[in-house]
Design goal:
By secondary structure, this protein is α+β, with helices and mostly antiparallel strands. Helix content is about 20%, strand content about 45%.
């Protein structure tokens, strides 16, 4: 091969390479001229865009090319179902979502000659404030901080008087599941009255009030009745309640020989919340009388309270009841005799006069005959300027006495009146 041919052989590959390079650059320019923007929105390092719930979001797809093309928007939601909702002819397409909700989260694709897909996430803060509670786990205290129904999951920081414990603290903090963080503390590092605080943070939380909750650790303190009395052969129930204690203490029952009581044919042990109930079945004085201990325990300490169980004799109780009934009957009999003998003090006759100052004037039988001759139907007398009439042995007092005329009086009385 000659020099000329060698020169041509070297020149052709150079031209081919130059052409391919120009095509690639032009293609890159065309790709850069096709843009998709979503506002307002923030872009994560992986290219995902997030917006806030209840906001108004605009989606824009445009090309700097002068040639019109078919532009369409496709949406694929969490259920992987594709939906085409915009299809226009031109170089520009835009649509707006008002009051964005969690259902609008998904992949949005703008397609022309090419397609660009943007994943959109909808962020919203948790509901209400964080909630804290403590639980016992052996010699450890587990502190739970929960802030639920937010997306994405919140970040928590536990703190006390000695310092902070974040979610990345592998010594004390344990990442929780979903919306909860657990802080595990040794019981030996805690004390009565110690306070722990949990502060939550979320990218979509915009309120001024700090989202936090606090826990106050308390040593256990049982509460029960120190003396319980029952009857032999009957069931006896003992109740013990944890008056104080955080984490909620464990309640157990111990017999006077230091053995723990469990549910069996003799005993029934039930615990609901901070209250424990022990039922002793088919009791016998020789076997069941004595001391029972309620043990209240959490990682901050142990407290015990003694309950003494005693028995009453049924015969003595029955005798006491009979004596009480007889005593009541005797009292009732004595009271009845007293009332009967002094009945005059309590039973009074009906009085027909109106007041003790009234004076009644009775008329002789002779005068009564004279009054009868005159046609009088009764005896009339003046009593304290009132008239009284006697009919058939009864005396009636009238407020307005009838007038007495002289012509109706006997002749002797009339003369005395005239004089």
């Amino acid at each position: 091969m000659g020099p000329g041919s060698m020169g041509r052989g070297r020149h052709l590959p150079f031209v081919a390479v130059l052409g391919l390079t120009l095509c690639a650059l032009l293609g890159a320019v065309d790709a850069e001229e096709f843009t998709v923007t979503i506002t307002p929105g923030e872009t994560l390092p992986n290219g995902t865009i997030y917006v806030f719930k209840h906001s108004k979001v605009s989606f824009n797809c445009s090309s700097r090319s002068q040639q019109k093309s078919n532009i369409s928007w496709n949406y694929i939601g969490p259920d992987s179902k594709q939906e085409t909702f915009v299809n226009v002819e031109g170089t520009y397409s835009e649509f707006t979502l008002s009051n964005v909700d969690s259902d609008n989260q998904g992949n949005y694709t703008c397609s022309t000659n090419e397609s660009v897909t943007k994943e959109v996430l909808v962020y919203h803060p948790p509901e209400g404030p964080p909630l804290c509670h403590a639980e016992s786990s052996g010699n450890y205290v587990n502190l739970f901080c929960s802030w639920t129904n937010g997306y994405p999951h919140p970040i928590f920081v536990w703190s006390n008087a000695t310092g902070n414990f974040g979610s990345g603290d592998q010594t004390h903090g344990q990442p929780g599941l979903n919306d909860t963080m657990v802080l595990q503390v040794k019981g030996s590092e805690t004390y009565d009255g110690q306070i722990f605080k949990c502060v939550g943070s979320h990218v979509a939380y915009e309120q001024r009030m700090e989202p936090s909750c606090s826990l106050l650790l308390k040593a256990p303190l049982p509460e029960t009745q120190p003396l319980v009395t029952g009857f032999e052969g009957k069931n006896i129930t003992l109740t013990c309640r944890a008056k104080e204690g955080n984490p909620p203490p464990k309640l157990t029952w111990i017999r006077n020989n230091k053995t723990e009581i469990f549910t069996n044919k003799k005993y029934i042990v039930l615990q609901e919340g901070i209250t424990s109930v022990l039922t002793i079945q088919r009791t016998f004085k020789a076997q069941d009388e004595g001391s029972y201990i309620c043990k209240c325990e959490n990682p901050l300490g142990i407290k015990e309270m003694e309950i003494w169980v005693s028995f009453n004799n049924k015969n003595i109780s029955g005798l006491v009841g009979v004596i009480a009934v007889l005593a009541l009957l005797c009292i009732a009999a004595i009271l009845g005799i007293f009332l009967y003998r002094h009945r005059n003090l309590f039973v009074t006759r009906r009085r027909f006069w109106q007041s003790g100052s009234n004076v009644f004037t009775l008329v002789d039988s002779e005068e009564e005959e004279e009054f009868a001759d005159e046609g009088s139907s009764g005896i009339t007398s003046v009593v304290n300027h009132q008239s009284a009439e006697s009919m058939n042995g009864h005396v009636f007092v009238e407020d307005n006495p009838p007038k007495i005329y002289n012509d109706r009086l006997p002749s002797e009385k009339r003369n005395e009146t005239d004089a």
